Amino acid sequence: MLLAATATPLPARAGEEATQWTTTWTASPQPLWAGDFVLPTNVPYHLWNQTVRQSARVSIGGPRVRVLLSNEYGSKPLRIGAARIARSQRDDRIVAASDRALTFGGKSSVVIPPGAPMLSDPVELDVPALADVSVSLYLPEPTPPATFHWDARQTTHVGAGDQTGAAAFKAESTLSTRVFLSAVQVQAPAATRSVVALGDSITDGNMSTVDQNRRWPDFLARRLAGQDVAVLNAGISGARLLQDKMGSNALARFDRDVLAQPGVATAVVFIGINDIAWNGTAFAPTDPAARAEDLIAGYRQLIARAHTRGVRIVGATLTPFEGALQDTPMRGYYGADKERVRQAVNTWIRDSGEFDAVLDFDAVTRDPSHPARFLPAYDSGDHLHPGDAGYQVMADSIDLRALLGDEPAVATTAPALVSHEH
């Protein structure tokens, strides 16, 4: 993994602008969970003599690109027989003229050790801001998808044989997950900064329209396009601040997913609702009830670690969840005691002054006549996740000046973010 929050500028030729490698898109790696957990993994037992084509929408662009693959949770070496990147056209098709082979140390195939990431060599490919790229991986051996990202909100296409260079992909099946693809980086101006959103399913975009890039970080990336600010989504559906299951707890993955990103300027912390709500449900039937003081202690750890690295850290209030998942096997997700914990956590986030700024997603999305519930216009229907309109209003409410610590202020559609300068 990358270990520095600041990126090293690349040598510039006379008359050229200094540049750096900057991550423009991420999907946080997760381990597969066992069959005794309530949710299916939605991946096959293995992939064998198959190509997996995955699309991603970048935030910032650049003239050169490279890809980060991950075998973080694999117990055996991961063999990639071939890999290519191209501009996406639509569905599983690519723009043929943009197709580029990816190499690793000059070789077209690579073996990634267990627990390791692998960064490709740079390739010349002009990728505009907010463009869609496709990464195709050929897996020649029986390969369990041990490192994956469960809630892609993007269709992954799987086809027989080595189709990495096929303009028209012949898909045998599709997945709703990502496998092995962790990040895309571009060569960007040296002044480029990153905003990393550390969160759960509401950051991962659960219940947003699939293949339409309507997560709140996607909408934020559109607002910041052309300003040399990358927006990286480090959301994991089902993630918790303090405990593992659908991915490592936030304290454990903060370095990997946030502080290690080159040029990171701001971390947005929007996580904790699953810590509060999972106990007593099919998700975590034997877990004890969450306490506000435990979550606050966790947030304080993230704040201290961010400040040690010179990273601005913004706290987001937890959104309403009355009635959440009530007509599903996860009934019991909401309760009056759990709501009191959410309110106590939100009061601390708003009033403590310990975050550098506060993003009040609760105020933006709640129903003024029933504050424990989502405003119907922003509710996806499950009373836990926003729909597309809810995700957009969350992103549109952000004061970009307070987010980045810049001057002058940037106009917002709602006063959702208040700065606490130290």
Automatic annotation (TrEMBL):
Keywords: Hydrolase. CDD domains: XynE_like. One of its GO terms (molecular function) is hydrolase activity. It comes from the Bacteria. SUPFAM superfamilies: SGNH hydrolase (SSF52266). The keyword Cytoplasm does not apply. InterPro entries: GDSL, GDSL_Rv0518-like, SGNH_hydro_sf. The keyword Lyase does not apply. Pfam families: Lipase_GDSL. This is SGNH/GDSL hydrolase family protein. It comes from Lysobacter arenosi. The lineage of its organism: Bacteria, Pseudomonadati, Pseudomonadota, Gammaproteobacteria, Lysobacterales.
